[in-house]
């Protein structure tokens, strides 16, 4: 048992002893209450002998299909914790699945981060293994870990198996947009779409394209918060569970070492993550999530860093939506360690950055081998050249910045001028998108506003709207679209996203009129509205902010405190690390 002499003062516990000792090592009534209630689950007295108490945070939910299998992953983690001499305790967290949640899972990312942070802080945990899957659950958990700063390791749930439809590989999300276009163009029937649904999602796991879920899994591995190779094992592969078991073993050692997220999540780690995101052709959503995580741990990171740091990095990974392969192929080719090894060897990563293994990035990836150079192309002959990653745009239409995923865009449209066709909401666009009389051409620039963090609310993934039906039937496959919302990482097209300030705040996007000419110039990183300042000032005088219908509850809190996309869309009161100080004892 614990030595009661070391539990006389909370200050001594916080600075010198395990957190769990304040609960399970306490004497008198308080200690009896904590231990006795835990023993109603059948735990023997030996688990209170001072061993590390490890929380296993599980975002399992049948309402979040990407996370529905995480209870089985949790069992593997528990095995590892027991094997390493720890005491594992599983606890549930909310799951924020983009597949079902309305108006958007992004509305609830910050709420989940708050929940996980407070659950870890409030309970007798010395370390935590966080199990995530859906694209918002991963950043939410890392945000929480950064804020509470107890030893933590992340395990993502893994991608689905490759979809198969009529002899071809199909990718989740990416083929949804393609099938929608085929349906609108009359080249695919509704019955064929119904059949394709089951072919696309044929196992547990998150999107098997390089959507935001896969991107965030890879990016958190690049940050050093996951074990090497953990990001890409398919959800149903036995090695997914081996990885989870290894994470359970590793977290016990991290507690003994005192290795915390603040030691891993350094400026160098974020630079590594940005460059890996460029190399994998990752989602634009990674920008918002990395900015939010950096804000939690106090690392200076700006929107422009994503452009500057990515320019020297070619796209190496030939995976949908930018390429033709899927995450299974990427995994079996060698996964993230191969990408990082190549970047380290060419001095494009900080090889000395510390990771949750207790070793450096360079040490972790030194032995990685590329088993399929068609999927992970060599840096000397990349899938796409350097500078083809996410571009950060500025101009009088986006003074706070906007982003565009070049690897998923049409090269001919990266420099384009055309007349705007403006919609105040995405619903307004959908209402007329199939109208054969809609006045739109391939040169038109679709402008969709009212989709920012405050304005929607939650900044939904609506920016890559399907093209008007009349253009699809005419064979048009892409056009410039501009929005203050987001795009699914599985999406593609020449879409300008995250326009800041958003229209609901009176940003320039709110002042655009149909017929105004707009120039997109990606090579020069500019987005220009060809309306003079005097006219814009006059329009601004007549602009009225949209009414906020939310007067109470969480959505009111969100709209009052959410920041803009260029700083991560986190709450203004959640920046910085609040630490793991032990809460007061009411017993």
From TrEMBL:
GO BP terms, alphabetized: branched-chain amino acid biosynthetic process
Keywords per UniProt: 2Fe-2S, Amino-acid biosynthesis, Branched-chain amino acid biosynthesis, Iron, Iron-sulfur, Lyase, Metal-binding
Residues covered by the Dihydroxy-acid/6-phosphogluconate dehydratase N-terminal domain: 51-364
Gene Ontology MF annotations: 2 iron, 2 sulfur cluster binding; hydro-lyase activity; metal ion binding
Residues annotated as domain Dihydroxy-acid/6-phosphogluconate dehydratase C-terminal: 374-569
Entry-linked SUPFAM superfamilies: IlvD/EDD N-terminal domain-like, LeuD/IlvD-like
Positions in coiled-coil regions: none
Matches recorded under InterPro entries: Dihydro-acid_dehy_C, DiOHA_6PGluconate_deHydtase_CS, ILV_EDD_C, ILV_EDD_N, IlvD/EDD_N, Sugar_Degrad_Dehydratases
Domain of life: Bacteria
Record-stated family: Belongs to the IlvD/Edd family.
NCBIfam families: PRK06131.1, PRK13017.1
Name under which the protein is recorded: Dihydroxy-acid dehydratase
């Amino acid at each position: 048992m614990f030595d009661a002499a070391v539990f006389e003062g909370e200050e001594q516990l916080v600075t010198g002893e395990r957190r769990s000792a304040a609960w399970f090592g306490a004497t008198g009534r308080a200690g009896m209450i904590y231990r006795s209630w835990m023993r109603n689950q059948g735990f023997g007295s030996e688990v209170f002998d001072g061993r590390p108490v490890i929380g296993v945070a599980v975002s399992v939910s049948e309402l979040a299909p990407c996370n529905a299998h995480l209870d089985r992953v949790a069992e593997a983690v528990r095995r590892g914790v027991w094997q390493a001499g720890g005491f594992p305790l599983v606890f549930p967290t909310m799951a924020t699945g983009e597949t079902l949640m309305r108006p958007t899972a992004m509305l609830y990312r910050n709420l989940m981060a708050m929940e996980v942070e407070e659950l870890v802080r409030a309970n007798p945990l010395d370390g935590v293994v966080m199990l995530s899957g859906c694209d918002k659950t991963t950043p939410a958990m890392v945000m929480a870990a950064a804020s509470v700063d107890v030893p933590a390791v992340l395990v993502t749930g893994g991608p689905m198996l490759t979809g198969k439809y009529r002899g071809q590989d199909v990718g989740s999300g990416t083929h949804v947009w393609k099938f929608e276009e085929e349906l609108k163009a009359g080249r695919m029937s509704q019955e064929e779409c119904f059949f394709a649904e089951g072919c696309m999602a044929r196992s547990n796991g998150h999107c098997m394209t390089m959507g935001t879920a896969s991107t965030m899994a890879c990016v958190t591995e690049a940050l050093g918060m996951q074990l090497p190779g953990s990001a890409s094992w398919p959800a149903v592969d036995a090695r997914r569970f081996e990885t989870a078991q290894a994470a359970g073993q590793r977290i016990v050692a991290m507690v003994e070492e005192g290795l915390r997220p603040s030691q891993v999540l350094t400026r160098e780690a974020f630079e590594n993550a940005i460059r890996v995101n460029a190399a994998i052709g990752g989602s634009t959503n990674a920008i918002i999530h990395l900015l939010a995580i950096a804000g939690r741990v106090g690392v200076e990171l700006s929107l422009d860093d994503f452009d500057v740091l990515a320019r020297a990095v070619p796209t190496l990974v030939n995976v949908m939506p930018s390429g033709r392969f899927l995450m299974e192929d990427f995994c079996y080719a060698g996964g993230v360690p191969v990408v990082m090894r190549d970047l380290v060897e060419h001095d494009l990563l900080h090889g000395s950055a510390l990771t949750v293994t207790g070793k450096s990035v360079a040490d972790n990836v030194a032995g990685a081998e590329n088993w399929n150079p068609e999927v992970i192309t060599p840096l000397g002959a990349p899938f796409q050249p350097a500078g083809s990653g996410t571009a950060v745009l500025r101009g009088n239409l986006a003074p706070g910045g906007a982003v565009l995923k070049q690897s998923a865009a049409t090269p001919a449209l990266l420099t384009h001028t055309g007349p705007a066709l403006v919609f105040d909401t995405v619903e307004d666009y959908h209402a007329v998108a199939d109208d054969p009389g809609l006045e739109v051409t391939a040169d038109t620039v679709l402008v969709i506003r009212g989709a920012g963090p405050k304005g929607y609310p939650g900044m939904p993934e609506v920016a890559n709207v399907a093209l008007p039906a009349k253009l699809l039937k005419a064979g048009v496959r892409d056009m410039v679209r501009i929005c203050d919302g987001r795009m699914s990482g599985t999406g593609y097209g020449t879409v300008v996203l995250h326009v800041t300030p958003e229209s609901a705040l009176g940003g320039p996007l709110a002042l655009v009129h149909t017929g105004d000419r707009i120039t997109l110039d990606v090579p020069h990183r500019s987005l220009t509205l060809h309306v003079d300042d005097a006219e814009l000032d006059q329009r601004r005088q007549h602009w009225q902010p949209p009414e906020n219908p939310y007067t109470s509850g969480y959505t009111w809190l969100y709209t009052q405190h959410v920041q803009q996309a260029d700083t991560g869309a986190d709450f203004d009161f959640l920046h910085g690390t609040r630490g793991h100080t032990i809460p007061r004892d009411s017993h």
